[in-house]
Amino acid sequence: MAITAYYLNPEGNIQQDISKKDIVSAYNSGQGLLWVDVAEITEEDGQFLEEKLHFHHLAVEACIDPLIHSPKIDDFGEYLFIIVHGINHTVEAEIVETTELSIFLGSHFVVTTYNIPLYSIEAVRRLVTNDGRPMRRGASFLVHAVIDTLIDNIMPTIDKMSDVASEIEEEVIRNPQQAILEAVLKLKRSTLRIHRVTVPQREVLNRLSRGEFKIISQQAEIFYRDVYDHLVRVQDLNQTIRDRADYALNTYLSSVANRQNETMRVLSIVATIFMPLTLLAGIYGMNFAYMPELGWRWGYFAVLAFIGAVIIAALWFFSAKRWLGWGQRQARRARLFAIEPEKLVGHLGHVLKRPKK
Q1: Cβ neighbour number for residue 350 with a 10 Å cutoff
Q2: 79: containing domain
Q3: Residue 164: other Cβ atoms inside 10 A
Q4: DSSP helix/strand/coil, 15
Q5: More confident site: 92 or 47
Q6: What is the number of domains present in the chain?
Q7: What's the order of all strands across the beta sheet hosting 109-114?
Q8: Any idea what the CATH number is for the domain that residue 8 is in?
Q9: Residue 194 CB neighbour total at 10 angstroms
Q10: Which pTM does this prediction carry?
Q11: pLDDT exceeds 80 at position 143
Q12: What percent of the chain has pLDDT over 90?
């Protein structure tokens, strides 16, 4: 159990680390601004929120439940219950993990609960400890600061996923191995997890920014719209990475199919060359007593010459059909988007023709 409370009293002073008794007293006074932060919430914490602060049982139960809930916003009249999601930066995993932040927003109080430590909460705590800026403008701006920092902390993960996508795109052409396929699938799962939380979270921020709730001040609405724009950008970038993963998967499957085709082509060429030779060897391998060629002095050398002629003819035929790669002129590698400077207007070697007078 870790409850940290900050109270901005009516005189404008910030009180830190106040006791539970003082929390209840500040909450019931209806004055100033109270921020109660509950890290790694327990059943005892939930009982305190439900009995002393009179929060709804279902909302408190959602805070305690370790299962991940979809982002949402519930209006209980005197306060709003908001669930938003961020990235779990406390673990190093091959697949991105999200974490949940629950917020109770009232006119004179804010309560945040979560099960996993959040860097965004720590950032807002430092601001409050230094000069109390997030709290001095009201509860709406304090919640905005928390959500804004939570969304901003998604961007480093998006950038890392973009770098991974670039590495995969290079490897999938150069060396399409099983490990690359696993990396593509893990990247797709990561983008899917982010997509699942950003889509409903957009609706939550949209509702907070359009004046639907009286608890959100009009001055704060534009700031929530700014956070909404940030989340839209995160979702667009995540969708782009998801598309890149799909393209990489298709490229991987095409590369594997092409390699299999190359292998089958080589095997087919070898089989085609040795089929007539196998027939010839089968014929002269029969144990008949009267075979005229067996008594011919030059028969063995004639068969060897015939075998060599068949091999040479088959190789010439396959080369003429361009089924063999060696000996063929390689296509000149094109320089994409490289235009001769002489063709550009403004280059020294390019002279504009003036009309004759």
Answers
A1: 12
A2: 2-253
A3: 19
A4: strand
A5: 47
A6: 1
A7: 14-16, 2-8, 33-39, 109-114, 98-106, 79-87, 72-75
A8: 3.30.460.20
A9: 24
A10: 0.74
A11: yes
A12: 42
